[in-house]
Fold this protein.
Amino acid sequence: MPVVSVKDCCIPYNTASKMLSYWEKKGEELWE
């Protein structure tokens, strides 16, 4: 799971949530 806490401080919460969902999906593809 990529570390996005730093970016979370710089972007709106909604955007952060979308990024988390995006990386979760990408993570499933990459780690499968």
